[in-house]
Amino acid sequence: MFNTLSDRLSDSLRRVTGKARLTEDNIKDTLREVRKALLEADVALPVVKAFVAQVRSKALGQQISKALNPGEQFLKIVQEELVSVMGAANETLDLAVKPPAVILMAGLQGAGKTTSVAKLARYLKEREKKKVLVVSADVYRPAAIKQLETLAEEVGVDFFPSTAEQKPVAIADAAIAHARKQFADVVIVDTAGRLHIDDTLMEEIQALHKAVNPAETLFVIDAMIGQDAVNTAKAFNEALPLTGVVLTKADGDARGGAALSVRQVTGKPIKFLGTGEKVDALEPFHPDRIASRILGMGDLMSLIEQAEQKIDKDKADKLVKKVKKGQRFDLEDLRDQLQQMQSMGGLGSMMEKLPGMGNMAQLAQQNNLTSQFKVMETIIDSMTPFERRNPDLLNGSRKRRITMGSGTQIQDLNRLLKQYKQMSKMMKKMKGGGMNKMMRGMGGMMGGGGGMPGAGGGQLPPGFRR
Ligand SMILES: Nc1nc2c(ncn2[C@@H]2O[C@H](COP(=O)(O)OP(=O)(O)OP(=O)(O)O)[C@@H](O)[C@H]2O)c(=O)[nH]1
After folding, report:
1. Which residues have CB under 6 Å of ligand 1?
2. How far, in Å, is the centroid of ligand 1 from the Cα of 281?
3. What is the whole-number distance in angstroms between the Cα of residue 73 and the centre of ligand 1?
4. Domain named SRP54-type proteins GTP-binding: which ranges (predicted)?
5. What is the pLDDT of residue 458?
């Protein structure tokens, strides 16, 4: 999401590196560039002005620290300011009330409310071991109720049925009463969205808010709507005592301005980022990590956390052992790696979080690497287990059968085999100490010594051209 902003800011910040001192004169141009970069990213004007003024006064009043050169010092000021604009600390949900704690979700139609209800339900269930019930009070769109039912089933949480004939308040009351009987910890209430902010919508959600007395009232907003985000956020914030924001579609090509404006305009923290259509694409929002990401400094913490949750540790350990013993790396192992990478949101999403790799993430997306990986996986799927373990035995007729079976071309298969051979060579080199060295190099990314070379390092498998 922050690619443009990140590129522009890194460019402009480069101008002050190498300067002996930060002066009004030598930061003037950089500040102008910073201002332009923020405006282009759709950050609201008052936020930009305050931001630039803050950075200027801090930069000039700064005692030159011996540990940092002026360029680094300026970068540090910008980073701190980004963090403070987005909220000083990471703010999580406050559900410490007599159960069930109610979470009310509000937002415009299509903002991603229903999807976010399911993502949040899954998050609370898996990460915090909560018993969650979801309910839809969207009586205008029966399809929305059905959509929530399907999603609830997918994430494995309880769904409380409702119909278009019922009143939203009655639905929510009944769901909460049911949740109490079932000893549920959390009830998430999805509400109707409208295309525009209108009085009826606001009155309805205000009545709902009063009736359910939520522990959290989350405003769901689409990062893609740019400058409009500010007005919408303002209107909802005036109508409802919001406790936080879920910023969705952060995976899209939105310019990121909403992330910087919303907190300033509403005074309410962004608590989660929606980063994809799938139900596991939800990240707690950490202002410091996002600031690093914007400045091209990566977000290793999020990557590590993701890896810890998503990497199948048994498989990873098995591969590490195999490589250490010098056993052959086969196509089954390669397929495991491809799958792990996808479960972490694909290569692009991983690279975005690696320091200095933001641009690479764009490249990966442009070159459609994720779909190339999918093709590789399909080809491997079409092989017999024997062939996967003995790729050297693939002769012409086997190759023909595999490509027919996977709907691919012989060139695709040959490319896969070439890449496999290169990887296999690399694995051989890592026999013994090499692997350990590499794991250390990755900063213990996978935790506990388990890890996937191709997946965890954010490196492309050899043979991929960037
Ligand atoms: N890429 C991406 N798509 C998302 C994200 N969140 C939601 N979507 C998509 O956005 C579209 C709208 O999401 P919904 O959850 O149906 O939106 P809603 O706000 O509930 O809309 P109504 O029910 O019409 O009020 C769907 O196609 C979702 O898959 C996200 O974080 N990233």
Report:
1. 107, 109-115, 138, 144, 193, 248-249, 251-252, 274-277, 281
2. 12
3. 40
4. 269-282
5. 35
Q: Is 251 annotated as a binding-site member?
A: yes
Atom of ligand 1 nearest to the CA of 119: 6
Q: What is the mean pLDDT of residues 303-328?
A: 68
Determine whether the annotation assigns residue 248 to a binding site: yes
Which range (180-189, 252-261, 321-330, 450-459) has the least confidence? Answer: 450-459
Q: Which CATH class is domain 101-297?
A: alpha beta
**Class level of CATH domain 310-456:** mainly alpha
Task: Supply the pLDDT for residue 217.
Answer: 96
Flag whether 193 is marked binding.
Answer: yes
- Average model confidence (pLDDT) across the chain: 79
DSSP three-state, residue 106: strand
| Residue 98 CA, ligand 1 centroid: distance in Å | 31
Complex-level ipTM: 0.95
Q: What is the pLDDT of residue 445?
A: 35
- Over residues 119-125, the mean pLDDT reads 96
**Cα gap 13→5, rounded to integer Å:** 12
Closest CA to 212 of 160, 242, 170: 170
What pLDDT, on the 0 to 100 scale, is given for residue 185?
96
Residue 300 in this model has a pLDDT that exceeds 50: yes
Q: What pLDDT score was predicted for residue 147? A: 94
3-state secondary structure of 170: helix
Q: Give the amino acid at 84.
A: S
- Give pLDDT tens digits for 212-252: 999 999 999 988 877 777 888 888 899 899 999 999 988 87
194 annotated to bind ligand:
yes
- From 140, 253, 277, the mutation candidate for ligand 1 (largest count of ligand atoms within 8 A of CB) is 277
Q: Look at ligand 1, atom 21, and give the residue with the nearest C-alpha.
A: 110
Measured from the Cα of 193, ligand 1's closest atom is 25
* 341: pLDDT strictly greater than 70: yes
Radius of gyration of the CA atoms of the chain, in A: 25
Q: With both helix axes pointing from N to C terminus, report the angle between 369-381 and 358-366 in degrees, rounded to the nearest 10.
A: 60
* CA angle 412–416–422, rounded 5-degree value: 145
Is 92 labelled as part of a ligand binding site?
Answer: no
Extents of the domains making up the chain? 3-86, 101-297, 310-456
Expressed in angstroms and rounded, the spacing between residue 120 Cα and the centre of ligand 1 is 13
Determine the Cα angle at 155 with ends 149 and 158, to 5°: 55
8 A C-beta contact, residue 268 and residue 245: yes
The residue whose CA is least distant from atom 27 of ligand 1 is 277
